[in-house]
Amino acid sequence: MSTTRRRSIMSCGCNNHTRCSCQPNGCPSAIQIVGLCDPSTITFEGLDTDDRNWTEVSIPEVLHIPPQKPDIETIDKVFVQVKILSKRVIRTPISTEENAEGTKLTGWKLVIEGVVKQKVVYTAWNAVQSVHSAHFTVPFSAFIILPGDTTEEDRFCVETCVEDVFVKAINDREIFKNVTLFLKATKEPPFCPPVPPPPTP
Questions:
Q1: CB crowding 179-200: b at 16 or more within 10 Å, else e
Q2: Which of 75, 85, 183, 198 has the CA that lies 20 to 30 A from 115?
Q3: Coil, helix or strand for 62?
Q4: Is the dihedral of CA 100, 101, 102, 108 positive or negative?
Q5: Cα gap 11→153, rounded to integer Å
Q6: What is the DSSP string of 105-116?
Q7: Residues 78, 121 contacting (CB under 8 angstroms)
Q8: pLDDT tens track for 115-171
Q9: Taking every annotated instance into account, which residue ranges of this chain make up the domain SipL SPOCS (predicted)?
């Protein structure tokens, strides 16, 4: 059975070019993130109505290492993949003016449900420093305001882009992770583009 150990935790800062974390031993170190998208692949044509059909969401979570796994010494790598489970067009109220956040309701929204699938690879806090992995699936929900001429029969493809992943070991058994996710909806052509395969370990 695992015993609780007290360790000092320090505040760590990193630049935008390196994924960093405060490890349980108090030392900052780079963590490889697999599954981030290339922002240049998301294009906006300027005149296309679909260019306005987007949103960004933050998905914070506390991950618990399964009881059969050993304690964390350092986090080495995180694999992330987003899967859309459902999307549906719904009616909403219509607002004539923007609210304080700049949002104006058109009468239509696309409600999106999905999951963030992830694998955390870490070095165990034991004599042999063995490497282990733990798998997690976290649900999320988001919405995109659609144009006023949308109909209930319209169907949309949803493009996902994982912009950033922040990872921090809270203690020997828990990990705080936040995923910043970009979602863009495009009125569906005859078929949706295939979902890219998950990153290989």
A1: bebbbbbbeeeeeeeeeeeeee
A2: 75
A3: strand
A4: negative
A5: 51
A6: -EEEEEEEEEEE
A7: yes
A8: 999 999 999 998 888 999 999 999 999 999 999 999 999 999 999 999 999 999 999
A9: 71-169
Q: What angle do CA 174, 55, 175 make, to 5 degrees?
A: 5
Q: Where are the domains of the chain?
A: 20-37+47-187
Distance between CA atoms of 195 and 191, rounded to whole angstroms? Answer: 12
Give SS3 for 39: helix
Minimum mean pLDDT among 23-27, 153-157, 171-175: which range?
23-27
* Structure-token match 């696309």, residue found: 110
**Tally of CA atoms within 13 A in the half-sphere of 92 that contains its CB:** 22
Please report where in the chains the tokens 């806090």 appear, as a residue.
Answer: 125
Does the CA dihedral 111-142-188-195 come out positive or negative? negative
Q: What is the pLDDT of residue 127?
A: 87
Per-residue tokens: 121:
């690879």
Q: Please state, as a whole number, how many other Cβ atoms lie within 10 Å of the Cβ of residue 129.
A: 10
Q: Which of 42-46, 62-66, 96-100 has the highest mean pLDDT?
A: 62-66
Q: What is the pTM of this model?
A: 0.77
**Residue 192 predicted with pLDDT over 60:** yes
